[in-house]
Specification:
The chain is α/β, with parallel strands linked by helices and 570 residues long. It is built from eleven helices and 14 strands. A hairpin with a 2-residue loop joins strand 6 (96-101) and strand 7 (104-105).
C-alpha cells in the first residue's frame, strides 16, 4: 500500500517563497475551503506535478512558477511503501528531479525520462491516467472514467488489476518476434546465397574436370601455331636484314653524289662566267678597230692577237665545259640510284618493324596461353580443394536449414504466446473474472447515494444502464448530478478493487468541488456517510468553497490570499 504522508511546495502557482505544507495521513477526512482563486486546488497540481511532471489542471509547465519570484519553484512529496520511505523532489528554475529512498538520493546518471518511467513502473505502479482515476476526482478539467476512450479505460483497469505486466510482456514478446522474423529473413537470404554458391561450385568443378585437359591441349596447339608464325616472321626479318645490309653497302658506293653535284654546279657556273667574259672580249676586238672610250685606233697586231687568244681560250673552255656536263650527268645518275636504294631500305625497314610488332603480339598471346594453361593445370591439381569448398557450402547450407526450422518453430510458439497475452487472451479472462465484483460494487455505491439503477460494464468497458423507468440508458443520457454519482461510485469501486491489489492501493483520496456543482443536499449527505464510514483505510481531502460543513470533517484547512500570495490560514 502507498501511504502518502506529506506534501509541501513553494513558489508554485500563487504560493510565495515560504513553504506550504500539508500532512496527508493525519486525519480520515479533511475539508479544504477558501474563496475562488485562494489556491485551495493547488494541492492537486502540486501532487500530480511532483509525481508525473505535469499539473492536474490544464496549465503549462512554465506557468507553474510564481510570477512574482520567477524562480525556485519546488514541490516535495513523501510517502511509504511497506517499510520503505520515499521522497520525490521536483523543481523548476533550476530544474531538478530527485528520487530519495530511505533518505538516500538515487542514481542521477539516468535521463529524466528514464527516471520518470522507473518511478511509475517500479515504485507507485500507476501512470497519470490511473492516478487521476483512483486518487483524484477533479472538477471540470478532470476527465471521468466514463468519458475516457476505450484504450484509456483499459489502461486504468489493467493498472488496477496488476495485469499491465501482460501488456509489457506482450510488447517484449512482440519485439522478440520481430527480431526472430528479421533473423529468419537474414537466414533466408543466407540460404539462397548458399544454394547459389553450391550450384556455382558444382558447375565449376564439373567444368574443371570436363574441359580442363581439352582446354590445355587446345591452348598448347594455339601456342605452337603462334611459335611457328613467330619463326616465319623472324626468318622474313632475317632475309630483309640481309637485303638492307646489301643495299646499305651499295649506298656507300654512291654516297656523296649530291655534294659532288653541288661542287660541279659551282664549277659550271665559274666556267660559264669565264666563257661569257672571253666571248665578250672576242666580240669587242672583232667589232672595234677604234677604242670607243678614248677614240684611238687599236693596233691591228694587238687586235688580232687578242682575237686569236680569245678564240683559243673559248675552245679550251668549251672542251672543259663539255667534260663538266658529262661529269654532272654521271653524278645525277649516282644520286638517283642512291634515292632508289634509300626507298628500298625504308620499305624493308618498315616491313621488319611490322613483323616485330606481329612477333611481339604473338609472344604476348603465347604468354597469355601459358598463363591460362598454368591456371587450368593448378585448378586440375587443386580440384580436391574445390570439392572441400563445396562440402563446406553444403554443410553450412544444412546448418542454415536447421536454424531456419528452429526459428520458425520459435515464431509459432511465440505467436501462440502473443495471442494469449493480447487483450482478448489472459487479460480478458482476468478482467472477466473481476467484472462481476466491479459491477456489484458500482451499484452498491450508487444505491448508497440513493441512485437506483443497474449499471454494468462489459469486457470492452462499455456501459449498460437499466432503470425502473427506462430499459436502456447511457452515461451521457443522465444529468450532471447523476453523472457525478456514477463518477463517485466508479472512484470508490476502483479504490475498493485497489485494496485487493496492493501495488496500486493508496491511503489518499482527493476530491475537488464535488459539493459545489452537481450533488444536491441529499446526495451530499450520502456522500459524506460513504467517505466517513464506507471508504476504508483512507485519508480523504474534499476541496470546496461551500461553508457550513466544518463540523462534518475531522479537520479543516482554510486558504486565503494576501497581497497576491496564497497561504494556509493560521
Amino acid at each position: 500500500m502507498i501511504v502518502f504522508q506529506n506534501i509541501r511546495w513553494k513558489n508554485f502557482l500563487s504560493t510565495g517563497n515560504q513553504y506550504t505544507e500539508i500532512n496527508l495521513d493525519k486525519d480520515s477526512t479533511t475539508l479544504i475551503v477558501g474563496t475562488n482563486g485562494a489556491g485551495k486546488s493547488t494541492v492537486l497540481d502540486a501532487l500530480t506535478f511532483s509525481l508525473f511532471n505535469k499539473p492536474f489542471r490544464k496549465i503549462s509547465k512554465g506557468q507553474l512558477i510564481n510570477t512574482v519570484n520567477e524562480k525556485d519553484c519546488r514541490v516535495e512529496v513523501e510517502f511509504t511503501i511497506a517499510e520503505t520511505e520515499w521522497k520525490v523532489v521536483r523543481a523548476i528554475k533550476p530544474n531538478l528531479f530527485e528520487i530519495h529512498r530511505n533518505g538516500i538520493c538515487m542514481d542521477q546518471f539516468a535521463s529524466a525520462n528514464d527516471q520518470q518511467k522507473w518511478l511509475e513502473q517500479n515504485v507507485i505502479k500507476m501512470n497519470y491516467k490511473s492516478f487521476t482515476q483512483i486518487v483524484i476526482l477533479g472538477s471540470s478539467n478532470f476527465v471521468p472514467f466514463m468519458q475516457l476512450s476505450a484504450t484509456n479505460r483499459r489502461e486504468v483497469i489493467e493498472d488496477l488489476l496488476d495485469i499491465k505486466i501482460f501488456s509489457s510482456m506482450n510488447n517484449l514478446l512482440k519485439d522478440r518476434i520481430r527480431g526472430i522474423k528479421e533473423e529468419v529473413r537474414t537466414l533466408d537470404l543466407k540460404k539462397e546465397s548458399l544454394n547459389d554458391k553450391v550450384k556455382m561450385q558444382t558447375e565449376f568443378i564439373e567444368q574443371i574436370e570436363k574441359r580442363g585437359n581439352d582446354d590445355i591441349k587446345d591452348k598448347k596447339k594455339k601456342s605452337r601455331e603462334l611459335g611457328d608464325e613467330i619463326c616465319i616472321l623472324m626468318l622474313k626479318n632475317e632475309h630483309s636484314n640481309d637485303q638492307v645490309y646489301g643495299l646499305t653497302k651499295e649506298q656507300e658506293k654512291v654516297t656523296g653524289a649530291t655534294e659532288k653535284l653541288r661542287k660541279l654546279g659551282t664549277i659550271k657556273g665559274t666556267l660559264s662566267n669565264k666563257v661569257a667574259t672571253i666571248t665578250k672580249k672576242h666580240k669587242f676586238f672583232e667589232e672595234n678597230t677604234v677604242c670607243p672610250t678614248c677614240k684611238q685606233e687599236i693596233e691591228e697586231l694587238i687586235r688580232l692577237n687578242n682575237i686569236g687568244d680569245a678564240q683559243d681560250k673559248i675552245k679550251e673552255l668549251q672542251s672543259g665545259y663539255q667534260e663538266l656536263e658529262e661529269a654532272i650527268k654521271k653524278e645525277e645518275e649516282r644520286e638517283h640510284h642512291f634515292v632508289k636504294l634509300s626507298k628500298e631500305v625504308t620499305s624493308l625497314t618498315h616491313g621488319i618493324s611490322k613483323n616485330n610488332t606481329l612477333i611481339a603480339g604473338c609472344q604476348r598471346q603465347q604468354q597469355d596461353l601459358e598463363s591460362e594453361i598454368q591456371t587450368i593445370t593448378e585448378q586440375l591439381a587443386n580440384r580436391n580443394t574445390e570439392h572441400e569448398k563445396l562440402e563446406s557450402f553444403k554443410e553450412n547450407l544444412e546448418e542454415t536449414y536447421k536454424k531456419l526450422s528452429t526459428q520458425k518453430d520459435t515464431i509459432s510458439y511465440h505467436d501462440f504466446s502473443y495471442s494469449l497475452l493480447k487483450d482478448g487472451g489472459v487479460k480478458s479472462k482476468i478482467i472477466k473474472k473481476y467484472l462481476p465484483l466491479i459491477n456489484q460494487q458500482v451499484n452498491r455505491y450508487l444505491q448508497m447515494m440513493d441512485f437506483y439503477i443497474n449499471f454494468t460494464l462489459d469486457e470492452e468497458f462499455n456501459e449498460t444502464v437499466q432503470s425502473p423507468i427506462h430499459d436502456n440508458f447511457s452515461y451521457a443520457s443522465f444529468s450532471e448530478g447523476e453523472k457525478m454519482r456514477i463518477d463517485l461510485a466508479l472512484l470508490f469501486t476502483w479504490r475498493e478493487v485497489a485494496r485487493y491489489k496492493n501495488s496500486v492501493n493508496t491511503n489518499l483520496l482527493v476530491m475537488d468541488e464535488v459539493f459545489d456543482s452537481s450533488l444536491d443536499g441529499y446526495g451530499t449527505e450520502e456522500f459524506l456517510k460513504i467517505i466517513r464510514f464506507v471508504v476504508k483505510d483512507a485519508n480523504v481531502f474534499v476541496i470546496s468553497h461551500k461553508t457550513g460543513m466544518d463540523d462534518r470533517f475531522d479537520s479543516v484547512l482554510r486558504y486565503e490570499k494576501i497581497k497576491g500570495f496564497s497561504r494556509l490560514a493560521s
